[in-house]
Design brief:
single chain, about 230 residues, mainly alpha, Serine Threonine Protein Phosphatase 5, Tetratricopeptide repeat, elongated
């Protein structure tokens, strides 16, 4: 199970990096691999849809967004992407309906999505959107901070997959930032993977030797003691 997740995480991380670099065909390959490894998750379908949209394939993108929404109704990125894909396909009336749905927020019924993900906290959604805006504006540190805050919200709510996915988005922007690896260790520990958390803390120790950060170091020591 852990090996499967590690393969999924690596495929998703590589896809984010290729997408950020404008290497869309490579990103497409990685995102397709991620959807095959974790077909029950919405995020890789959303990422795949976004790449297809950038490649001017709105119909294919729409199919991926709709698949994501089947898995997680109310997923804000899937809804936003669906609206964009509908617009690109010339289906303006339908796009307007989706935009109204976004404006009024996600559904309140937790039964609409597995693990209660339809009712993710409003603050987590805000952090996610804030991170996307910052990334688009080239504000890398701000995007990382927003997604790490999103991860912490998900972690506190027990949404472990969502927490780790937020970390992966941040990691794709800067794989050497100590604060990202600290949050990954926290997320893995919360998920019940103490061995992986310990390995991540060992990597973090090496990173801190190159990029000292007293606050992160203190937090890492406290986490290691647990």
């Amino acid at each position: 199970m852990e090996d499967l997740y590690a393969k999924y995480a690596e495929a998703l991380r590589a896809g984010h990096q290729f997408a950020a670099a404008g290497q869309l065909k490579e990103a497409l390959r990685c995102y397709r691999a991620a959807t095959e490894l974790a077909s029950e998750r919405a995020l890789p379908h959303v990422a795949l849809g976004g790449t297809l949209l950038r490649l001017n394939q709105p119909r294919e993108a729409l199919a991926e967004y709709e698949r994501a929404l089947e898995l997680e109704p109310g997923h804000i990125d899937a809804l936003s992407g669906r609206a964009a894909a509908l617009l690109a396909a010339g289906r303006r009336a339908e796009a307007a309906q989706v935009q109204e749905q976004i404006k009024h927020g996600p559904a309140d019924d937790a039964s609409l999505a597995p693990d209660g993900l339809a009712t993710l906290t409003t603050s987590a959604d805000r952090y996610l959107a804030s991170g996307e805006q910052a990334r688009a504006a080239g504000k890398i540190d701000a995007a990382i901070d927003a997604w790490l805050a999103e991860s912490a919200e998900h972690r506190g709510a027990g949404h472990h997959d969502a927490a780790l996915d937020a970390c992966l988005r941040a990691l794709a922007l800067d794989s050497s930032a100590p604060r990202i690896h600290l949050e990954i260790a926290r997320a893995w520990l919360a998920r019940g993977w103490p061995d992986r958390a310990a390995q991540r803390l060992q990597l973090l120790e090496r990173l801190l030797a190159l990029q000292p950060d007293k606050e992160v170091a203190a937090a890492a020591r406290e986490l290691l003691a647990r």
